[in-house]
Amino acid sequence: MSYCLGIDIGSAYSKGVLMDDRELRASYYCLSGGDFRLTADKIKKELLSQADITSKDISRTVATGYGSKMVAFADKEITDISCHSKAISTLFPSVKTIVDFGDLYSKVFLIDGKGNLLNFLLSGKCAGGSARVLKVMAKVLQVNIENLGDLSFKAKKDIEFNTGCAVFAESEVISRVAEGFAKEDLLAAIHKALSAQCYSLAERLGIERDFALTGGGARNKGLIKAMGDLAGMDVHVPDAPHMTAALGAAILADEALKRLEVRGQNFFVDK
Amino acid sequence: MAEEQKKKKKRRTATKAASSIGPMVKDFIVGTNRIRAEGKQKLAFTFIVCHHEEILRAMDVVPIWTENFAGICGAKRDAERFLERAESLGFSRSLCTYALCGIGFDHWREELGEMPPDAPWGGMARPDFMISTGQILCDPRAKWYQASQQYMPDVPIYNMDMPYPLYDRTADHREVLGYYHKYVVKELRGLIDFLEKQTGKKMDYDKLEERVELSDKTWNLIHETYELRSASPCPMGTGDAMNTMVPMCFMMATQETYDFFTGLNKELKEKIAKKEGVIENEKYRLLWGGGLPSWFALTDFNYFNSKGAVFPAETTYRMVTPLDEMDLPETSDPVEHLAWRWLGYWTFWYDKARKRPGSEPDVERLINYIETYDIDGVVMHEAFSCRTWHVGLIWQLHQLAKIYKPIPVLYLGKDGKQETGHRELPSLILESDIIDISSYSEVDTRNRIDAFIETLESVAKDKASVS
Amino acid sequence: MNDKKVKGLSKVENYYQHYGLRAGELNKEGEKVIGYICSFVPVEIITAAGCIPFRIKGDVHEPITKGDNLMETIVCPLVRSYFDLCLKGRYDFLSGIVIPHACDSMVRGYSAWNYSLDLPYSYFLNIPSVVKESSFEFFNAELNNYRRGLERFVGKEISDDDIAGAIRLHNNNREKAKALYEFTKPEVPLISGTELRKVLAVGLSLPISESNQLFDEVLTEIKERKASPGKKGPRILIDGACIDNYSIMEIVEGLEADVVTDTVCTGTRDYWPEADTGIDPIDALAIRYLDKINCPKTYRENRPGTFEGDIADRFGDIGARAEEFNVDGAILLVYKFCDPFGFEVPARKAYYESVGIPLLCLESEYSAGTIGQLKTRIQAFLEMIG
Question: 3-class DSSP state for residue A271?
Answer without folding.
Answer: coil
